[in-house]
Write a structure and sequence with these properties.
Blueprint (H helix, E strand, L loop, with lengths): L3 E9 L3 H9 L1 H4 L6 E8 L8 E8 L2 E13 L4 E8 L2 H4 E12 L6 E11 L8 H20 L2
Antiparallel strand pairs: 1-7, 2-3, 3-4, 4-5, 5-6, 6-7
């Protein structure tokens, strides 16, 4: 199989810097959305490349977990990447890389969050992760609402 990708752009009202700084520290996201039930640091330091994060999620009404390694933290470009190491996704995908990039909205206030997932399916029977992409779109929207309510 070959590496494939899906992505979505989500317009938010929060500034790019505020959204990025908040979501860069993974443990913050738990307080901002009902979809993320927990986030534990297993190795390393929060928001440092190479650190291992254990996520507890609710996806399609079911509890899920994901053990991820932080691959990239680029504060100049407002980019974070996580590689999935263990969890249900690893049963269907040989590799799975999640990337979030936050950019100021051109010609207006707010910003745009680009959520990208690069993956390699174990075989043709495995679906593309479109429902998972929609899940992350909803998480982004909830974090935006949370940050706006904090102002």
């Amino acid at each position: 199989m070959v590496e494939e990708e899906v992505e979505a752009d989500v317009e938010i009202k929060t500034t790019a810097d505020k959204f990025y700084l908040f979501s860069r520290r993974s443990q913050n996201v738990v307080s901002a959305t009902r979809y993320i039930q927990g986030c534990d640091l297993l190795e390393g330091e929060w928001d440092k490349v190479g650190s291992i994060i254990f996520w507890k999620l609710v996806f399609d009404g079911e509890p899920r977990v994901s053990k991820d390694r932080i691959e990239t933290v680029d504060m100049e470009k407002n980019v974070i990447q996580w590689r999935v190491l263990e969890g249900p996704l690893k049963k269907e995908y040989k590799s799975f890389l999640k990337t979030v990039k936050v950019s100021p909205k051109q010609g207006g206030s707010g910003s745009v969050v680009k959520w990208n997932m690069k993956y390699e399916r174990i075989d043709e029977k495995v679906a593309h992760p479109k429902r998972l992409l929609q899940f992350f779109v909803e998480v982004i929207k909830e974090v935006d609402r949370y940050l706006l309510s904090e102002e």
